[in-house]
Amino acid sequence: MREVIKNVPIPAAGVALGLAALGNLLQPYAGAVYSLCGLLAACVAALVAAKAILFPEMVAQDFKNPLLASVSATFWMAGMQLSTYIASLAFIPAACLWAACVVAHLGLICWFTARHARQVTLDQVFPTYFICYVGIIVASVTSPVFGMESLGSALFWFGFACYPVLLVVVTARYVCCPPPDAARPLFCIYSAPASLSLVGYLAIAPQPNITFVAIMLMCAQAFFMVALARVPRFVSLGFYPSFAAMTFPFVITATALGQALEALNASGVPFSPVFDMLVLVETAIAVAMVAFVVIRYAIFLTAPLRERGQSDAMVEIEGNVA
After folding, report:
1. In a 10 Å sphere around its CB, with 0-12 CB exposed, 13-18 middle and 19+ buried, how is residue 307 labelled?
2. Which residues, other chains included, contact 116 with Cβ-Cβ below 8 Å and sequence gap of 6+?
3. Is residue 14 helix, strand or coil?
4. Which of 9, 95, 196, 265 is 20 to 30 Å apart from 309, CA to CA?
5. What is the distance between the alpha carbons of residues 251 and 77, in angstroms, rounded to a whole number?
6. Are the C-beta atoms of 175 and 122 separated by less than 8 Å?
7. pLDDT in tens, 19-77
8. The pTM is what?
């Protein structure tokens, strides 16, 4: 087990985030699947936490890389999501977990800005910067569970203000400096900020501006289509830990579409029944992508165990032959 933990990359926290968000997306369809996703998300998050505890020097080395340092925010985002799973069973511990994750994420933003963002060059900019700064909107999404809408509103506007700035910078990086193969799947993160912003806004706005909702929905769907079209190319590259980027972005896009349609319907805005089918299609895509990435991660993490088992078997065979 120690070898598995040692092999856990920081981006695995993104898988935990994707699983937790997927459970919330599927809760209306199947309560058992909701619980399973929460359990799996907690297990993956626990592996990442164990890596930090057992191998702190490795994690410290990873944090010198702006890509890995920024993607680590998914751990706190996953914690915010998971806190909502236990709120109905143990509200006080859940609220404490949520508050701790929010504070930790804000601390990461401050540290990352001072350590990396102020002196970063364009070739070191990745879509993971969206995670670090815009990702705090997950606190807005989950804030109603704990009656913290006021804080959620403030954090939403902070994250949303960071979005257009980062969109320009990250896009400039892709235009000027194509990323290496290992980082290419991170492009899927492009589809997350608009959708996350939309879900966060709907969570904290008692009377949402329908024009704003419609515009954000169109932007979210456009980014989703662009990212989805590139998935086959990313998969063909072979497995990289950055595959985690193909989980939460697609889940939150399906969530945003469903919630936006509910808001539009409540405001009396007519729309075609085709959009209801589109929600199901995007939900199915989210399920397929999360399942695919979880399986690929499971194969990746257990590889050292299989190699060790094969090595032990060879030693035993050689001993018998001798």
Report:
1. exposed
2. 66, 69, 70, 124
3. helix
4. 9
5. 14
6. no
7. 999 999 999 988 899 999 999 999 999 999 999 999 999 999 999 999 999 999 999 99
8. 0.92
